[in-house]
Write a structure and sequence with these properties.
265 residues
Length: 265
């Protein structure tokens, strides 16, 4: 027996209840305080973007520790299927990995192998996990809890990935399929055409593949409240709202415009 707390992922629990989960994309802020802002603003998870922004591992770990402590799930979008730091981040409080640009079931299976312990995957074990307050937990117990708590998200961002989405969604160990709307539109030759029938049909196809396999459909890069609401109405339950950069910029610009309007009459 051990006095270590059980480790669960509030985001996975929320999704298991059929609820909607909203995430803030983090590209600029390097302080763990971003987790507190996410919670205060009503978000359920952080989507730390190492694909398009520069974060060092200590920064990611510091944010993840704070997020876990206050009930916000820290997810990391990694650089790609060959990112060498995935298991290291999972060992140090990151509770979910988002793989960009998944195009085949074979790539999907590699993602599962990296994120899950045997027999499903080949993730290496260690002792004294911070998720258990560094207490000694029997490996069978620790690995079972960590596997259950780790959220694995694969992104569809190309026509090839969309063509294979049914096989991708059927891969054991995958929890969610997330549509990278911006990249998928660019790769379709329709950049910025968020209301194009092709991208609407693509999201619907992903939704259907996820529903058929009992996993969660996600939508990202679609930065409009009305379109996000339509995505949720269509079956999406894992949604990134906006980036920290965009939230700061929009609030700052709106405030300045109001001050100027009130003082430059």
């Amino acid at each position: 027996m051990t006095d270590a707390p059980a480790f669960t992922n509030p985001l996975k629990d929320r999704l298991a209840r059929g609820e909607i989960a909203l995430g803030m994309s983090v590209r600029m802020v390097r302080s763990p305080d971003i987790a507190r802002i996410a919670r205060a603003s009503g978000h359920d998870f952080l989507f730390i973007d190492t694909q398009h922004s520069v974060f060092d591992l200590e920064t990611i770990t510091a944010i993840a520790h704070t997020a876990l402590a206050i009930g916000i799930a820290p997810l990391v979008r990694v650089r790609g299927i060959d990112d060498p730091d995935v298991s290291l981040m999972l060992d140090n409080c990151v509770s979910g990995i988002v793989y960009p640009d998944i195009n085949t079931a074979e790539e999907d299976a590699r993602a599962v192998a990296t994120c899950k312990f045997p027999p499903l995957g080949r993730r290496s074990v260690t002792g004294g996990y911070p998720m258990f307050d560094y207490a000694g937990v029997p490996l069978a117990e620790a690995t079972a809890q960590l596997d259950a708590a780790t959220l694995l998200v694969c992104m569809i961002e190309t026509p090839e990935g969309l063509d294979n989405v049914e096989a991708i969604a059927a891969t054991p160990g995958v929890d969610a399929i997330h549509v990278g709307t911006n990249d998928l539109l660019v790769n379709m030759g329709k950049p910025g055409h968020f209301d194009d029938p092709a991208i609407i049909a693509a999201q619907e196809r992903v939704n259907a593949a996820c529903a058929a396999n009992g996993i969660v459909a996600g939508c990202g890069g679609n930065r409009d409240v009305a379109r996000q609401a339509r995505a949720v109405a269509g079956g999406v339950r894992f949604l990134t709202t906006q980036t920290d950069i965009a939230f700061l910029w929009a609030s700052a610009r709106g405030w300045v415009e109001e001050v100027r309007a009130a003082t430059e009459g």
